[in-house]
Amino acid sequence: MARTPRHRRLILPLLCLLFQGATALLFAVFVRYNHETDPALWHWGNHSNVDNEFYFRYPSFQDVHTMIFIGFGFLMVFLQRYGFSSVGFTFLVATFTLQWATLVQGFLHSFHGGHIHVGVESLINADFCAGAVLISFGAVLGKTGPAQLLLMALLETVLFSTNEFILLSLLGVRDAGGSMTIHTFGAYFGLFLSRVLYRSQLEKSRQRQSSVYHSDLFAMIGTIFLWIFWPSFNSAPTGLGDGQHRTALNTYYSLTASTLSTFALSALVSGDGRLDMVHIQNAALAGGVVVGTASEMMLTPFGAVAAGFLAGTVSTLGYKFFTPVLESRFKVQDTCGVHNLHGMPGLLGALLGVLVTWLATHEAYGDGLQNVFPLIANGQRSATSQAVYQLFGMFVTLVFASVGGSLGGFLLKLPFLDPPPDSQCFEDQVYWEVPGEQEAEVQRPLRAEEPDTQA
Amino acid sequence: MARTPRHRRLILPLLCLLFQGATALLFAVFVRYNHETDPALWHWGNHSNVDNEFYFRYPSFQDVHTMIFIGFGFLMVFLQRYGFSSVGFTFLVATFTLQWATLVQGFLHSFHGGHIHVGVESLINADFCAGAVLISFGAVLGKTGPAQLLLMALLETVLFSTNEFILLSLLGVRDAGGSMTIHTFGAYFGLFLSRVLYRSQLEKSRQRQSSVYHSDLFAMIGTIFLWIFWPSFNSAPTGLGDGQHRTALNTYYSLTASTLSTFALSALVSGDGRLDMVHIQNAALAGGVVVGTASEMMLTPFGAVAAGFLAGTVSTLGYKFFTPVLESRFKVQDTCGVHNLHGMPGLLGALLGVLVTWLATHEAYGDGLQNVFPLIANGQRSATSQAVYQLFGMFVTLVFASVGGSLGGFLLKLPFLDPPPDSQCFEDQVYWEVPGEQEAEVQRPLRAEEPDTQA
Amino acid sequence: MARTPRHRRLILPLLCLLFQGATALLFAVFVRYNHETDPALWHWGNHSNVDNEFYFRYPSFQDVHTMIFIGFGFLMVFLQRYGFSSVGFTFLVATFTLQWATLVQGFLHSFHGGHIHVGVESLINADFCAGAVLISFGAVLGKTGPAQLLLMALLETVLFSTNEFILLSLLGVRDAGGSMTIHTFGAYFGLFLSRVLYRSQLEKSRQRQSSVYHSDLFAMIGTIFLWIFWPSFNSAPTGLGDGQHRTALNTYYSLTASTLSTFALSALVSGDGRLDMVHIQNAALAGGVVVGTASEMMLTPFGAVAAGFLAGTVSTLGYKFFTPVLESRFKVQDTCGVHNLHGMPGLLGALLGVLVTWLATHEAYGDGLQNVFPLIANGQRSATSQAVYQLFGMFVTLVFASVGGSLGGFLLKLPFLDPPPDSQCFEDQVYWEVPGEQEAEVQRPLRAEEPDTQA
Q1: pLDDT for the residue B7
Q2: Are C180 and C346 in contact (CB under 8 A)?
Q3: What is the dihedral of CA C167, C172, C176, C177, to 10 degrees?
Q4: So what's the pLDDT on residue B51?
Q5: Which of C9, C24, C454 sits opposite A273 (nearest CB)?
Q6: What percentage of chain A has pLDDT greater than the value 90?
Q7: How far is B356 from chain C (nearest CA, A)?
Q8: Where would one find the signal peptide in this protein (chains A, B, C) (predicted)?
Q9: Please, what are the domains in chain C?
């Protein structure tokens, strides 16, 4: 296949225009404001719960957006020569996903009278889908072009939404913060996709697959914003009141513990006791992932701390010992280590959800049982039966992720999608006009007392 | 004119002290807490709408502050040698504008009993004014000193507030997110000002008028925060309830479309299919500008997507093809390309507002018509008549901006204001103590096992 | 004392694990959800004030977290070779403090029935404690290792919480934004600690104790986020309604004035009229500190502006003239100048609180007096008497801070805590794996049209 500049010039804009044209058309035909957003359907007082709910959720909603665009975008800026692509393609892919997920999720959840009815909660759900897509992006970061990523988002959004619909709506599984639907799904989708796209000659770009001092500081912007707002992420879809309070509190405690365990383990496993920025940037966040399912439940503050500690430990050990094996043994090249931050902690989070669900009693939850486990409260299921459903949901997610990711990998091998060559991975210059690193003049002139055209 | 260090030493501090002294004096004489802020005037329950409203608006309020200081400040950090000035002068100018606009807008809007009565909404309005001033700053970035900028803010705040008062209060024009009052006004004020300050010898500083790798990443912090919080910006002054929901939703959809069209067009118009960071940093935001007037109206989700797509396209093409013409033909040097991000999308947004106003019906808005178009709901105006007023508002804004900007240009030519010489534009060192670029020691010492005074 | 790599390898992980183990154990035994967080104790409607309050405070709550982790973390990134440690140790220390303060403050404030009852407000209070600890960190930045900092946090949290309990609960002192409890305490604790740890040979590391261009831009991220969200910080614990409105408004006005005075003074005191980034990054924030006590009171808008102006002036002059004296005369090495940003403005803020309290009348506050000065409203104290208590609170704080900081200094001299040697202060490499500064290849390859393993 002869790769020509002309060909490269056209594939990305054509895909953008095609996708935008198609979603615009679908928006025109199907998408309408819902009763919270349409002035003719709105009445204060009549919808007093609804209207308050929006305002109570608005801060969380903006926090989640910050996580998606600033958090994921800058977390991936750690590579020395891939900052434009990391933050730029995050921007592109998340943006497209917001539109596309509005449609796909709208068809599944709010399609009636021939129309999809959208409100601000449509955007929260679309953000969650974008989170999964960006997790998968982390696995293939630097080895895929923007056209490939748009196609990945196209496919993954459909599978994410279907899997989420099966779990939450058909199986009655609880997964507020998405340990299963977002983290497990996004990670294994990306890992299977990366397996199919395995590059045996990737060491040709190895010198670019590390960070520099400043790129690590940029990445910490991503880490810290993800850390701060993770409680909003996990609690965005939970019941108002105690549910949202408890979820936020559990998530914070879990994150503090995963941070402390990451610092401990990072120093412990290094040869000379020095901390590794890769661990701090990533494994410290595993506490948010691991309580994605259980944080709305009666996890207890101690349970949150214990879960976070475990997740930080597993994640740090994963970066140190398992990521190399994943590549050498399983031929999975996982650029950001999403297996350590989202994969294993996501599975642990699903299992933690099974455990805490299994322990649920009417006494522990009181009237709140209706919000957290409506099917148990209504007598349709026992706690044990709900726990089995939770476990089943995890397996369904793994099947969707692995089959979907493999499928996605073959799709992304379509030759016209313009992947970077092996020797040009992790390199912005393939897709971006890149300015120089150094300022124009190295020696700075003193302020010259020269005549000025202005005065 | 002989420029002396002594002279430079004094002009900025004197202006700061003079302006701060004057506003402090005016604060002492005129400014009082309003009924929401004064403990003796406040009663829970009696003001239940008022008190809730503050809390419902507080997140938007902080989002708008984030846009002004982080968003605008870092967006302009893209220049290689002008980061301190971009973020520092944004800080200075926005800060002064917050005080000064509180006074000017207070005299126009909340002056009674001999006092200006301020509450938190005074700060939202002042932030909007600061937004316009910073847009103008973008046009003259790198070519003006801080004393000039303070004087520009002094004048522009008065004209902004007067124009806004004429449009919103006298003409009954609707412009929640400020397509006209903020973006069109700020852009053309800055462009006319830049025209008057035209520097024929600016190519002497041309080598500094580009970015470096890291400065572009810093600028993306600004872009992304502006993008995330733009829905809060447009919806901050709209009616609570469906109005705020709809405005946020429309703004998001418009921004997603402008981002996709920017990526498409940026790759399409470049010689070799590579993306240009200038386009991504700026044109992707045009979707927020273009729905500044119409996003609170029944724009429909499709309308928002279509408007955003158009704005992103026009803006990207503007950066590629029109900015050079603006300089060569019209002698307007527009450093940040505010004509592309705020000028043209602002005018398009005003026209979109005319169109959507003209289409307004009682059926489409129901009871909500009272909030969006009170004069139509009350029977004082027809939709067509309101549309004509909207159009008239756009022309009033253009007159204020062009006359005011020209006036401002001549004001800023006052010789004692210490502009940078042609060869020292876009250079922090003129106004800042600048540290070196490189670390003290290039080769890092290994940890020496030396004795320590502490142990 | 022979310092060995093996020893260094173990002290930090062991402390992390020990501390995390101990707090986890205490969490298991003592910490339970409170009535807002436990589903069995929650009833909508019955707790209508409580439940609304959470949502009204949630944005402030997240703003405060942003200040602690992004604000403080990045503000301290200004050092050229200490970015990883600044943001990383902030992350570590604040994280541990959140857990530990939850326990200590819980025992003091919400211990009943044998349990500590935690809700989201526990995290706000813990964040405030983390703020004080990070202020102290600023004084010793670059001269202490992470194990020392953890021990400092252990001690300081206990003393902070005790001092806060004595002031707010026993003495009935008002200090919403913590001019005394947070800023004065944190600053003088750190300064006394730094005095005890005085290093006579610190000039061995002097070449690393300055900034570089990009590190100053990173630091501005910290400054601006602190500036934006300071109104949320000061108003987070005030009464809902007019109290929170007034506090936010006063804080904003004070911050605008301190910013303007910092720009004025910075240019005035420099030799050649150029601005100094150290002043802008720090002294501009002094307006938030100085109204920490008085911003919930009837300070008046003019009072806020005047206070902010004074604070910015004192702080800038402190950086220029007093910091060198502090080191040469008093042997206090204050890396971040916390004496200028938190110490002096904190004391001024305490005195301002005394003054405004002394002026409090029933007329000025109306029914709101109950919220701001309940003991005056109930007739238990006169305004003068309350003012004396405020003054006494300041002295109590100074005693706690100075004795505690000195104690802390001797504790941190324990030899096994692994401080950096004099010649390796302000150097990340002592504790972190540090990547290179420059990219792998300096000359960038053009895109090679080579065969690709993927296609």
Answers
A1: 67
A2: yes
A3: -30
A4: 57
A5: C9
A6: 81
A7: 34
A8: 1-24
A9: 18-41+55-417 (1.10.3430.10)
Nearest alpha-carbon partner for A272 in C422, C92, C433, B446: C433
For A9-85, list the strands marked E by DSSP.
31-33
- Structure tokens given for B148: 């000039």
pLDDT per residue as tens digits for the range A5-23? 566 678 999 999 999 999 9
CA–CA distance, B45 with A67 (Å, rounded to integer): 37
Interchain proximity C453–A199, CB inside 8 Å: yes
Backbone angles phi, psi at C422, to 5 degrees: -55, -35
Spatial CA neighbour of A171 closest among A391, A402, A405:
A391
CA distance C68 to C73: 7
pLDDT of residue B448: 41
Please choose, from the candidates C286, C335, C278, the residue with its C-alpha nearest in 3D space to the C-alpha of residue C85. Answer: C335
**Cβ(A62)–Cβ(B229) below 8 Å:** yes
- Locate all alpha helices (DSSP H) within B141-212, ordered by sequence: 146-164, 185-196
Closest CA in chain A for residue B248: A120
Average of pLDDT values for B157-163? 98
Half-sphere exposure of B286 (CA within 13 A, CB side): 42
Least CB-CB distance to A88: which of B228, B275, B430? B275
Put simply, the answer to whether C27 touches A277 (Cβ < 8 Å) is: no
Among candidate residues A279, A399, A287, A281, the one with its CA nearest the CA of residue A352: A287
- Determine, for residues B70 and C199 on separate chains, whether the beta-carbon distance falls below 8 Å: no
Burial of A328 (0-12, 13-18, 19+ CB in 10 A): exposed
Tens digit of each residue's pLDDT (9 = 90 or more) over A213-258: 999 999 999 999 999 999 999 999 888 888 999 999 999 999 999 9
> Which residue from A206, A192, A20, A27 is spatially nearest to A106, judged by alpha carbons?
A27
Q: Give A20's contacts in chain B (Cβ within 8 Å).
A: 257, 260-261, 264, 305, 309
Are the beta carbons of A241 and C51 closer than 8 angstroms? yes
Please list every residue in chain B whose beta carbon sits closer than 8 Å to the beta carbon of residue C366.
39-42
- Chain length of chain B: 455
Residues B210, A44: C-beta atoms closer than 8 Å:
no
Inter-chain residue contact B220 with A431, CB threshold 8 Å: no
**Residue written as tokens 């500044």?**
B292
The alpha carbon of residue A97 is apart from the nearest alpha carbon of chain B, in Å, by 9
Residues of C with Cβ-Cβ distance to B444 under 8 angstroms = 429, 434
A260 touches chain C (CB under 8 A): yes
Residues 4-63 of B with CB under 8 A from C: 5, 8-10, 12-14, 16-17, 19-20, 23-24, 27-28, 31-33, 36-44, 51, 54-55, 58-59, 62
Give residue for tokens 């000002």.
B193
Q: Residue C437 pLDDT > 90, yes or no? A: no
Q: Is the pLDDT of residue C143 over 50?
A: yes
DSSP codes, C426-455: T-GGGTB----SS-S-SSPPP------S--
Angle at which helices B213-235 and C213-235 pack, to 10 degrees? 20
Whether B252 has its CB under 8 Å from any CB of chain A: the answer is yes
| DSSP single-letter state for residue A453 | S
d(CA C157, CA C23): 13
- Is B297 in a helix, a strand, or coil? coil
Using a CB-CB cut-off of 8 Å, the residues of chain B touching C309 are 20, 24
DSSP string, C4-25: -HHHHHHHHHHHHHHHHHHHHH
Rounded distance between C-alpha atoms, residue B26 and residue B18, angstroms:
12
Query: Is C225 in contact with B64 (CB distance < 8 Å)?
Result: no
Name subunits touching B (3+ CB pairs < 8 A): A, C
Give chain B positions within 8 Å (CB) of C64.
none
SS3 of residue C326 by DSSP:
helix
Tell me the sheet residues that pair with A116. A31, A111
Query: Is the ipTM, as predicted for this complex, more than 0.85?
Result: yes
In this structure, are residues C257 and C306 in contact, taking their beta carbons and an 8 Å threshold?
Answer: yes
